[in-house]
Specification:
Helices cover 29% and strands 25% of the residues. It is an alpha/beta fold and 265 residues long.
């Protein structure tokens, strides 16, 4: 079996400040160490269930957060970015048996993490078909379009609840809860234990993990700066709303949604 793991940092145990998410910042080392530990725990769970090939995408910011030295031979790690629309699941194709999301965080527009955002910090929300959409949802839809189920998510509690709305069979591990500008965290080693067990459970029932893919996508993005919305409105098919801060576009497929997003968000 072959699995894809997409790892972000804002939903990792203990990660609370933007500073700790920036490569080169003093606080980043501890965050990256725990991101590595939680990603490794997911790999171990998958390998125990029979995975013989795992692709890990280091999917935060620089894409150079994970310590590659700890991973076993079954794992290949994608560092840095392809620059392709599939973004945080770059390289995913129909040959995979499932996607596992580690360290994901709630979307811009949700209050469940001090680090809530969608793709970057320049927007107040991204909506798909009228509902606030997370990075998890966009990438899970992309995976589903290839017939690949999204099996597992770890991150903050609100993200886990959001993800389960789209598939109640999805296994989740909430490693922390955001309150105001704070986070209440599990013990880092306990998070790893739960992630390893959760991934095993998820793989055991992987055929129940398909999302229903919408037949079309109405996308709305509310930018923090009107200048960003104005600029985005020149991309073919994108319309600026009267408020000057919001743009809309329609995509027939998730691939089209992701391509437009790559250029305007
Ligand atoms: Zn991130």
């Amino acid at each position: 079996m072959k699995f894809y793991i997409s790892a972000d940092i804002e939903g990792i145990t203990g990660v609370t400040s933007w500073e700790s998410t920036n490569l080169g910042n003093l606080e980043h080392a501890a965050a990256a160490r725990q991101m590595t530990a939680e990603t490794l725990a997911a790999c171990r769970g998958a390998i125990e269930m029979g995975a013989d090939e795992i692709i890990v995408k280091d999917a935060h910011d620089s894409g150079r957060n994970l310590d590659l030295t700890v991973f076993p031979k079954e794992v290949k790690i994608i560092s840095d970015w392809y620059g392709s629309p599939e973004s945080m699941v770059a390289g995913l194709d129909q040959t995979f048996d499932g996607v596992i999301f580690v360290g994901y965080h709630c979307a811009a527009g949700f209050c469940g993490s001090p680090l809530a955002h969608t793709m970057n910090r320049g927007n107040n929300y991204v909506k798909i078909n009228g509902e606030i959409a997370s990075e998890f949802l966009m990438h899970a839809y992309f995976a589903e379009s290839l017939g690949v189920p999204s099996l597992f998510v770890s991150g903050d509690q609100m993200l886990c609840e959001h993800a389960q709305k789209y598939n109640p069979n999805l296994q989740t591990v909430a490693v922390k809860k955001g309150v105001g500008n704070a986070t209440i965290n599990l013990s880092p080693s306990y998070s790893c234990k739960l992630i390893q067990e959760g991934v095993k459970k998820a793989i055991a029932q992987k055929d129940l993990c398909h999302l229903s893919l919408p037949s079309g996508f109405d996308v709305e993005i509310n930018f923090k700066k009107h200048s960003r919305a104005y600029r985005a409105s020149f991309y073919p098919g994108v319309t600026l709303l009267d408020d000057g801060y919001t743009v809309r576009y329609h995509a027939d497929t998730i691939q089209e949604l992701m391509t437009t997003r790559m250029f305007i968000l």
